[in-house]
């Protein structure tokens, strides 16, 4: 079935009210009916049956089922934000004394999470250059718990060699975690390529209009085979004391093993729960995602071509350009070579960059991406401000870099607006 059809119908069976739109189940709790059913639910004998909205809700569940199908995965956990999804994907496998291997071309908030917060929890982040995946092996040891990277890096706009990274991860029996926010499952499905976990900031392209925060963790089909009996992942293979010695790898939910543990341990204990209303908003956005991603990608390519021809632009980062170092990987992995709506470009210095941001009229200076309206950002002074100069250079964010999230406006209007800003 085509992804557009799945995005409109998957995961929802009309109830007795026969509503075409998915209902919003705005409730915190559920009637168990009997004491026996209540007790068995809290002991996880009922699988994913609703216990309390902190760990599950009918509207959230529809969104989760639908997004899992769109990503080609077996199960999805929706959480309060993309950062919560990243945090949980690591905490689900790592503890103090462990390490994770991560790309240095990442969103600034992710780098700060890995370098600061996880460090304080005793989890070490070991960085590699996305263009040198062969160096990953030198960073791996017995305490390595996952390899984390972005499908399209933000804001350096790099595309990794997925086959090589997945090959290395399987050689050492380590989970791969791919942030697929920028590409979206419409353009690329990492799980079908062999990646183990995909995460998303649904606050970006999924909602499409900047109306709702949310995040997703999606696991590939048959992931339990890689986790079960794997000494790298004792959380899944040893008795869980908070559930009377339950071993997650032996539970009845093997098809959703990774997300089930994240739900019943991390979401239960730390509560980064998505609201049913936000889930409903994300469902509306998901229904038009495939249509929007085609337009975002088309606009971004035309805009990148304009920037590449302008004398004041030093460099354009967009993998849809034939001149770009990532073009080959983009053509190999992405649907029809479409590369999403995110791009960046370099101009001479910080002052010129600030002037451009102040002169544009259609573009809005916003920290978000993936909106239907076009957005402009100066990463070094905003989203990546917390990084030191060497860290900025390592993740591809020089002082003169400007990031663009191409919206759905008429492309001629966007080009005219940027042209006057560049030449003002």
Structure description:
By secondary structure, the protein is an alpha/beta fold. The chain has 2 domains: 3-285, Type I PLP-dependent aspartate aminotransferase-like (Major domain) (Aspartate Aminotransferase, domain 2, 3-Layer(aba) Sandwich), CATH 3.40.640; 290-422, Aspartate Aminotransferase, domain 1 (Alpha-Beta Complex), CATH 3.90.1150. It is built from 17 helices and 12 strands. The strands form 2 sheets. Strands 1-7-6-5-4-2-3 form a 7-stranded mixed beta sheet, sandwiched between helices. It has a 5-stranded mixed beta sheet with strand order 8-9-12-11-10. Strand 2, helix 5 and strand 3 (124-128) form a beta-alpha-beta unit. Helix 1 packs antiparallel against helix 3 (58-71) and helix 3 runs parallel beside helix 12. It is globular, with a radius of gyration of 22 Å.
């Amino acid at each position: 079935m085509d992804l557009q059809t799945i995005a409109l119908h998957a995961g929802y069976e009309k109830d007795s009210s026969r509503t075409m739109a998915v209902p919003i189940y705005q409730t915190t709790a559920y009637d168990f009916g009997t004491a026996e059913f209540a007790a068995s639910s809290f002991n996880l004998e009922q699988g994913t049956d609703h216990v309390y909205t902190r760990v599950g809700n009918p509207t959230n569940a529809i969104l989760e089922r639908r997004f899992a199908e769109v990503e080609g995965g077996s199960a999805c956990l929706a959480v309060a934000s993309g950062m919560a999804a990243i945090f949980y994907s690591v905490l689900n496998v790592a503890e103090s004394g462990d390490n994770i291997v991560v790309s240095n071309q990442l969103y600034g908030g992710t780098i700060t999470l890995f370098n600061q917060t996880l460090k304080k929890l005793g989890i070490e982040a070991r960085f590699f250059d996305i263009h040198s995946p062969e160096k990953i092996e030198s960073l791996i040891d017995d305490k390595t718990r996952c390899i984390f990277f972005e499908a399209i890096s933000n804001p350096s706009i790099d595309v990794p060699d997925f086959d090589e990274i997945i090959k290395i991860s399987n050689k050492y029996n380590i989970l791969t975690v791919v942030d697929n926010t920028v590409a979206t499952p419409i353009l690329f499905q990492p799980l079908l390529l062999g990646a183990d976990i995909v995460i998303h900031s649904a606050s970006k392209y999924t909602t499409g209009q900047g109306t709702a925060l949310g995040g997703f963790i999606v696991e590939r089909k048959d992931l339990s085979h890689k986790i079960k009996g794997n000494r790298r992942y004792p959380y899944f293979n040893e008795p869980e004391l908070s559930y009377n010695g339950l071993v997650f790898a032996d539970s009845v939910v093997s098809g959703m093993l990774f997300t089930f543990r994240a739900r019943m341990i991390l979401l239960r204990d730390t509560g980064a729960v998505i609201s049913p209303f936000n889930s409903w908003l994300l469902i509306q956005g998901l229904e038009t995602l495939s249509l929007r991603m085609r337009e975002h990608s088309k606009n971004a390519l035309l805009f990148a071509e304009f920037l590449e021809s302008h004398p004041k632009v030093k460099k354009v980062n967009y993998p849809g350009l034939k001149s770009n170092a990532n073009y080959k990987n983009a053509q190999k992995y992405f649907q029809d070579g479409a590369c999403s709506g995110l791009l960046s470009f370099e101009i001479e210095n910080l002052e010129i960059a600030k002037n451009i941001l102040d002169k544009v009229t259609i573009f809005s200076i916003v920290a978000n991406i993936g909106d239907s309206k076009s957005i402009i950002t100066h990463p070094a002074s905003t989203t990546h401000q917390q990084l030191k100069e060497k860290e900025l250079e390592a993740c591809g964010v020089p002082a003169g870099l400007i990031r663009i999230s191409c919206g759905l406006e008429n492309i001629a209007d966007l080009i005219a607006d940027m042209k006057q800003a560049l030449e003002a």
